[in-house]
Amino acid sequence: MKEIYLDNSATTRPSPEAVAAAVEMMETCWGNPSSTHAKGNEAALRIKEARRAIAAAIAAQPEEIVFTSGGTEANNIAVFGAAAKNQKNGHRIVTTAIEHSSVLDSTAELEKRGFEVIRLMPDQHGHISPQDVAQAVTPDTVLVTMMLVNNEIGSILPIEAAVRAAHKNAPRAIVHCDCVQAFGKIPVSVKKLGADMITVSAHKIHAPKGVGALYKRKGLHIPPLTYGGHQEDSFRPGTEAAPLIAAFGRAAGIASERAAMKERYETIVALRDYTVRRLSQIEGVVINSPDDALPYIVNFSTCCVKAETMLNYLSERGIYVSGGSACAKGEPSHVIQALRLPRDAADSAIRVSFNADNTSEEIDALTDAVAQGIASLAHFH
C-alpha cells in the first residue's frame, strides 16, 4: 500500500541532507562542544555554522539565536521571561484565542499568578482584527504574543500591526511571535516583523524533532528559565544537541533559499487550489481555511462524519492527515471552537498540510477516499 503523507504541519520527513548532517555529527564529530580540545572545538564549530545559517534565514545576527529543544520550549522561555522582566511595568498580556497550546497554557499559568490575559477572538475565517489588537494594547501591557500563521487553519495574523500598537501604546512591552508554521514557507525577517522574540522549529522544515530556536533581539535581557551551565550565553544551559542542531542548520539553509522558497510556494498554491476544488465537489464538505491562508494548510469539514472516525478510515488506506478536533473528550480543538462553526462542522474538521513533494494524484486519492468514507460512514454519525 502506497503511503500518502499529508500531515506536514504536524511534522515533516527529515531530508537526506539533514539526516546526513546529524549522522556525521554522531559518527565523526561527536565531541562535547564545551570541551576545549580539538574534538570539542570541531563540534562547537558546527554549532556555530548552524547558528549562522538560522540567523541568516531570518535576517538576524548569530548572537541573537538561542537553541532550544523545540518550539514549545522557545515559546515558554519567551512568555515567562518577558513576564518576569516586565512585571514592574504592568500586568497585562495580549494574545489570541488561537495560539499554539504552548502559548495558551503558559499565558494561562501567568493568569493564575496575577497577570491579566487578553485573548483576542478571530472572526469565522480565523482572522484577528488589527483594530482589536490596537485597542487591546494599553499602557500597562507587558507582553504581546501572537503567532504569524495559525497551525490548524493557516490564517495569517497581523503581527506587524501588533508591533506598531505596542510601540505606540506600550513602548516597554515585549512582542513575541511564534513563527513555527511560517518559517521556511514564507520569508520571515526579524526586521520586517519587528518582534523582539521569534520562535522557529526544526521538524517543520525537514529536520529532526527535538531542536528549535528562539530569536532574542540584541540588547533584550530576560531571565532564563533554567540554570546550570554557560551554554547559549548561560541563557539556555545544558550540553547542546549537536547532531540535531547541525541538521537544523542544514535544513534552514535549504528552506530559506529565496528562489527555491518562491518556487515551492507556487507549487503549493496550485496544489492547494486543486485540493479545494476537489473537496468542494463532494456534497456537504465545507472549507474552513480562509482564501488568504498560508496555502500549505487546508482545513475542511465533512459535516457528517466525526474527525476521529474519518482519520482512522483514511489511515487504514495509508492516507495520513490530522483532525481539527482534539481527541480529548470529543471536544473540538480550541481553534475550531474559536471560529464558532456549527457543531457538525466543528466535530468533523480535518487538516490537510502539504510539502512540495505532494502531488495532485495524492490529492485525488485523498478526495476519493473522503467521498467513499462519507458514503460508508455518514449513517454512523
Which features would summarize this protein structure in a list?
single chain; 381 residues; alpha/beta; seven-stranded mixed beta sheet; four-stranded antiparallel beta sheet
Structure description:
The chain contains 13 helices and 13 strands. It has 381 residues and is an alpha/beta fold. Helix 1 runs antiparallel to helix 8.
Question: How does the SSE layout of this entry go?
Answer:
Elements: E1 4-5, H1 16-27, H2 38-57, E2 65-68, H3 71-86, E3 92-96, H4 101-112, E4 116-120, H5 130-136, E5 141-147, H6 159-169, E6 174-178, H7 190-193, E7 197-201, E8 212-216, H8 242-255, H9 258-280, E9 286-287, E10 297-301, H10 307-316, E11 319-320, E12 322-323, H11 334-338, H12 343-347, E13 349-353, H13 360-377
Parallel strand pairs: 1-11, 3-4, 3-5, 5-6, 6-7
Antiparallel strand pairs: 2-8, 7-8, 9-10, 10-13, 12-13
Helix pairs in contact: 1-8, 2-8, 3-4, 5-6, 9-13, 10-13
Shape: globular
Beta strand %: 5-15%
Terminal CA distance: 28 Å
Q: What share of the residues lie within helices?
A: 40-55%
| Uncertain runs | 325-329
How many alpha or pi helices?
13
Mean pLDDT: 94
Count of strand segments: 13
Strand arrangement within the widest β-sheet reads 2-8-7-6-5-3-4
Structural class: alpha/beta
Biggest sheet overview: 7 strands, mixed
Order of helices and strands: EHHEHEHEHEHEHEEHHEEHEEHHEH
Rg, rounded, reads 21 Å
